[in-house]
Amino acid sequence: MYKVGNFMNRFIVAIDGPAGSGKSSISKLVAQKRKFIHLDTGAMYRAVTLEALNRKIDLADEKCYDFLNDISIIYKDSKTYLNGVDVSKEIRSELVTANVSTVAKLKVVRDKMVFFQRESAKTGKVIVDGRDIGTVVLPNADLKIFLTASAEERAKRRFLENKEMGIDIDYETILKEIKERDYKDSNREIAPLKKASDAIELDTTKMTIAEVCNFIIKLIDERLNSMESFEMKELNMPKRLKVGDIVEGEVVSVQDKTIYLDIHNFTEGTMHLDHYTKDKSVESFKNIVKIGDKIKCEVAKVNEDNIYLSRLNLISEENFKLVVEQKELGNDIEVKVISEIKDKGYIVLYKDNQLFLPKSQSTKEVEINKNIVVRILEVDEKHKRAVVSRRVIEQEIYQENKAKEMDSINVGDVLKGKVAKVEKYGAIIRFNYNQGLLKANQVAHTFVDVAQVLHVGDEIEVKVVKKENNKLELSRKALLETPFELYVKNHKVSDKVVGKVSNKLPFGLLLELCPNVKGLLHSKEYSHNPNDNFASCVKIGDEVEVAIIAIDKENEKISLSRKALMDNPWTRVNASVGDLVDIKITNVLENGLEVEALGVDGFVPASEALLESKNDNLAQYYASGDTTKAYITDINPKEWKLRLSIKKYLMEEERKSYEKYMSDTQEAKVSLGDMLKKVLK
Ligand code: CDP
Ligand code: CDP
Description:
By secondary structure, the chain is an alpha+beta fold. It contains 16 helices and 33 strands.
């Protein structure tokens, strides 16, 4: 609870009066009894006088008092210290007493002393005695006393005092000195000795020190008591509240839009919702405030019947500290976007603080009534303003996502992206956060004009073929079927196709089956006829009809055969040396006859064409188309080789007719045919 003693910790008693009126001795006693600090200002003027005398200056010359800045005068526990030395006795000397009024009337001295005295009386309970305390030094003193006594009485007191201290000055001298000093002190220009209008005058001529002391103590106590009870009364009365006062109220009633608070006054305080929070989305006090809650608020308006309260200024005071705190901690804050300032930005709310989000710092994510996380860019504590940014956060998030996406992409990945740019050299393909380069030669398997194939905005699939320093190189063609793949998809082994001779190799021919697809026609596959010389039969560019005989998808090889499409007459030949067969002459040459026998080609050397070797031209005996018979003398189906002898057939025929002729001759045991067969084998 409130304590009077604590409160009444300042009280000033000013005691003024002429020399010997009892100021010092009474002040000292009162101070002891009521635990006041006593300040004897006369002693201070005396100390200055002592110093001036010591310095032997012209006491009346103001210019000689520069030393005032260099000396220290302290009055403590009834003792006077000059520059740290106790001079309590010296300052009471006759010389000092005789000169003190001359020194004390100087402005330079008084200004300095008054400054000291005011400083000393600034705190605590003090009793200050002098000549001008109640009038000049401390005109606001709580109690002012003006002590007087007749000059004779005062001279008598001083005489007795001196005597006790062993100072021998006669009464008349003292009286004269006192009167002179009275005159000087009362008539000087600055701060003369004078009773303050609100001082209590006390003639002590006939009073003892104790009587005076008790009288003053009584006055002090009365004054203190009346001040305390005044303060108490003030406290017990409901204070008259004024706009701006801060009160703590206890919630006694909660309505949707209004609460009532007990603020210990003539009426309850009323607070409307819009004075509780700046958040317009809060629609009711219910759920946010309950009876018994204590709320610190500010008096917003007072009239005869009502006291209206508001929390807005206070929360902004307190809550703004939260903004400052978050900024210092480097934390991002979640705010609610509450309004837009056209072309300038948005107002966002954080713990009831309205913060500014400039347009330049906002993003698409910023929408009225939406909660967003922002970074505090600037705080102006004085005006309670802060600027926040959404953009920096989104940029950070974007960079993070970009790095994450890049980390997740590896060479070989197949990604979907959008064509962002099309140039001659290729296209830029954008993924969510990163982009990559699709060079023109990676667009398709064949040479294409990039702009013909790709258009900005197209969504395409690409394969990552290179990743270096976070740069991606892509390929579209890697995902497309190669001409080979496409070809083999549409063709199978045994298909009959036409190829164009593109290369002649020692072991065969390369045939182009369609652009960028070639197949090999191995020399072995050219013809059944081993005597066919493929190299001389075809030239580059010739079209050859072939059959697909093998597809090696892995190595992208197609094997072709020409002979597979052809009939092999030799497969039907089943004959051996010595067999007699029908022949048809197809060509008559110098060295022999080309013939057809058993469905294949054969040859009858000139030496085997006639019964007897003649040097004549064979054409004299044979013509194309002639038919006859001949004995097989050599047969090799692998080499399509068939050699025949008409001569042997003719010899056989001759022997037959001879045998017929000799048919009656039974002795013949071995036929000529048998003999020939033996020789030929
Ligand atoms: O010796 P006594 O008690 O009579 O006088 P004091 O209080 O020691 O003051 C000595 C002198 O200082 C006075 O005569 C005044 O001239 C001067 N004085 C002053 O001018 N103003 C004051 N507040 C106190 C003292
Ligand atoms: O300070 P001021 O010059 O006003 O007087 P003081 O030095 O306090 O008193 C001068 C002398 O008078 C001291 O010896 C006091 O004891 C004495 N005195 C007295 O006998 N009766 C009084 N009512 C007041 C002071």
